[in-house]
Amino acid sequence: MPTLSVFLDVPLAPKTTSKLLDDFQQDEDPNKVYLGYGVCMTGEKIPWLSPVVTRTLRRLIHDPSFSYTYLPEHGLEAFIRVATELLVGRHSPAIAENRIGGVHTIGGNGAILLGAKFLKDWHRGPRVVYMQQTQREQYGPIFQELGFSLREYTFWDTFRLVSDTGKLFDVVEHAPDRSILVLYNSGSFILPRKRWFKLSKLLKKKQIFLFCDIPDQGLVSGDPDMDNKILRYLVAQGFEFFCNERVGNLVVVTVSNKSLLCIRSQLDIYARYMWGSPPALGSRVITTILSNPALRMEWKKSLRSMVENIMLTREKMKEKLRLLCTPGSWEHLTGQDGMYSFLGITVEQVDYLVTKKHIYIPMNGLINFTCINYQNIDYITQSINEAILTIGPGPQPKDPPKTEVMADDPESKNLGHMTSESKSLGLKAPGLSAYLHNKK
Fold first, then answer.
1. 153: which residues sit within 8 A by CB, 6+ positions away?
2. pLDDT digit string, tens, across residues 372-421
């Protein structure tokens, strides 16, 4: 006689994978394209790895001295050190004052979960978390499960087709005192120093706790040091904050060494019962590369090369749409930085591309430019042109405001400086856009 399960009332959980990706994988159309991947892709439709990473990985695997013993709960100390230095700079005042540290985590979500768990138990303020719309699907359930309420915000202006990071003032001004602000990809924020100084005063006045999220350091400007100027400014201003370095490092910045030791001791306890020991292989690859000047320089050069390809893809796409006489302005394609950008089309036009042309784009129009290559760029631009002509143009953008570039502000020098490595790579502030313009 069969025994009845004690779990008869357990329902089938919804899929955690993206429905958009599921639909793409089941699509049999030979022209199908997926523009929503969350990683850097190659023209061969596989995730990109810097060549130096691949070589280092092979070398470590065949190294007879490689240890497979468990790491302590807080992780590999050498990895935490080099990853944290990459984030805030080797000569950061926080490092000199021993008030910054990290905990080795299981991926980016592990860092968010670890930090959110600590904030639930120890943060004295309303359980209100602000995060950008593009983060809600990935991080929202983590905070909600711990009892936080979510409030969304966005910097993308759908009418002017620009990313207006000045909207951060509105978010902070309306946020309750002592609430939590998740700040995504700070390397893409363009504000002059005076504005950042004003914003930092407002953040301190309202005691807003920042939880920064760094998904792809170095893939905004081509230089990891340039991408983190804002974080380094916050450190210099004496802010306390968490930072999710998605390689698996939760960085903790405090006001004193005593606070750091106390916070890390609590995080170590959480890590011990959440996963016990973080993964070792990837962290040792990163440690090896960042600790070796030659390998580190090669890795930085590969980043610059990838960002150059992204910027050139943006230029080509804009030019092809211009030659097709596609209605609307497409200057925003080259006005944005990094792997991801809003395409600037309507929900109806996105739906047309998905259902009629088999081009899979998230409904908010945020696409990954590394998914576009010489094999599909013509099909994608022709399909966009067709979608707009068929559906009709959306709201026409107003004239975009003048871009506020930090490096053009004479008072922005305190936000950071270019390293000797950056100069040797040929990069010029304010980023790779200027570099490519000068190269022309």
1. 130, 131, 132, 133, 167, 171
2. 999 999 999 999 999 999 998 766 655 544 544 433 333 344 454 444 44
Angle 341-211-365 from CA coordinates, rounded to 5°? 20
Would you give the DSSP letter of residue 160? T
Tokens of residue 300, six digits = 């930085």
Q: Does pTM top 0.85 for this prediction?
A: yes
Strands (DSSP E) found in 90-223: 100-104, 128-132, 149-153, 156-157, 162-163, 180-184, 209-214
Q: Which residues are CB-contacts of 68 (< 8 A; sequence separation ≥ 6)?
A: 280
At residue 364, the 3 state secondary structure works out as coil
Quickly count: other Cβ atoms within 10 Å of residue 170's Cβ: 11
Provide the terminal-to-terminal Cα distance of the chain, rounded to the nearest Å: 79
Tell me the β-bridge partners of 181: 130, 210
* Cis check: omega of the bond before 430, within 30 degrees of 0: yes
Rounded to whole angstroms, the Cα distance separating 255 from 134 reads 31
Q: What is the pLDDT of residues 182-236, one digit of tens each?
A: 999 877 777 777 888 889 999 999 999 999 999 888 999 899 988 888 899 899 9
